[in-house]
Amino acid sequence: MIERAKEILKIEGEAVLSLISRLDKGFEDAVNLILNCKGRVIVSGVGKSGIIANKIASTLSSTGTPAFFLHPTEGLHGDIGVLLKDDIFIVISNSGETEEINRLIPSIKRLNIKLISLCGNRNSTLAKNSDVFIDVGIKREACSFGFIPSSSTTSAMAMGDALAICVLEKKGFTQDDFAVLHPAGTLGKRLVLKVSHIMHKGDDIPIVRMDLFMKEAVLEMTRKRLGITTVVDNAGILVGVITDGDLRRLIEKNENIFSIKICDAMTKFPKTIDENTLAIDALKKMEDFFITSLIIPDNENKPIGVVHIHDIIKAGLA
Questions:
Q1: Is residue 83 part of a domain?
Q2: Same-domain pairing of 29 and 154
Q3: CA–CA separation, 223 and 232 (whole Å)
Q4: Per-residue pLDDT tens digits of the chain, which is 318 residues long
Q5: Does residue 75 sit in the same domain as residue 169?
Q6: Looking at the structure, do residues 33 and 159 belong to the same domain, yes or no?
């Protein structure tokens, strides 16, 4: 079974790679039509091709190009009424002779809507009636029967991805644009959630003065429950940090840690981060330095926040 699976993957991989040499001006024309579309992009197909069409429509929509899937059978029974003259119609059909698809062509033409086909047969009815034809033909399906949609659907989906990504890059679609369209998922959070959104601030910031004794540091760490406390001088400027790790190391060396001054026990030059930094970048910095917290200073280097790795985990980024 493993060897057979390898063979199937090889067949489908070769089918996708074979598309490269057949890319021509038709692909460029399709990208420009989608890019300049003043309406919506409607994507259609039957059966497995319909599933791929639905995926392509979703990818276009999620990257800033309004698009939706129209089932050709439903279209023939009234849903074609959603089409507007400024729309573009993309059809996926390996054979180019799918009856439901070809029965839609007169209505599409009557509305003067541009038709793009992702088709495996350039001599088919669909291809001949398309304004733009993109060749997604394959040598063979991956199944032993030679007719179960496999290589053909993989090729169509890959070509649809190529179209969508070329369009988004030409229109200058950015990470911020993507985040606006994906506010709820992990991808969106990674692109929009900043340190300022999750950091502890105000009275929740653990702060002790450097001239006090370690008893005050332990009490402050216990109160604020972040595993650290920031250390400041008399002017409130950040000068160091005391962590749980510092306490453990002091206990190993000295039985009476409360007699030690904070300035003698603190770690100088603590790791900090700007409040406008993405939370995911804060996580990376913690991982790089094997620490669990970062301090957020203001322009005068006074602590205005602390972010803990648990805050990032709770936000769903780790």
A1: yes
A2: yes
A3: 17
A4: 999 999 999 999 999 999 999 999 999 999 999 999 999 999 999 999 999 999 999 999 988 899 999 999 999 888 988 998 899 999 999 999 999 999 999 999 999 999 999 999 999 999 999 999 999 999 999 988 888 889 999 999 999 999 999 999 998 877 766 666 655 566 666 767 899 999 999 999 999 999 999 999 999 999 999 999 999 999 999 999 999 988 888 888 876 788 899 999 999 999 999 999 999 899 999 999 999 999 999 999 999 999 999 998 888 876
A5: yes
A6: yes
Residue span of the structural domain in which 226 resides: 195-314
Instruction: Spell out where the chain has E strands.
Output: 41-44, 67-69, 88-93, 114-119, 132-135, 207-209, 228-232, 238-243, 267-268, 293-297, 303-308
| Number of domains the chain contains | 2
- Quick check: is 189 in a domain? no
- Pairing relationship of beta strands 88-93 and 114-119 according to DSSP bridges: parallel
CATH of the domain at 9: 3.40.50.10490
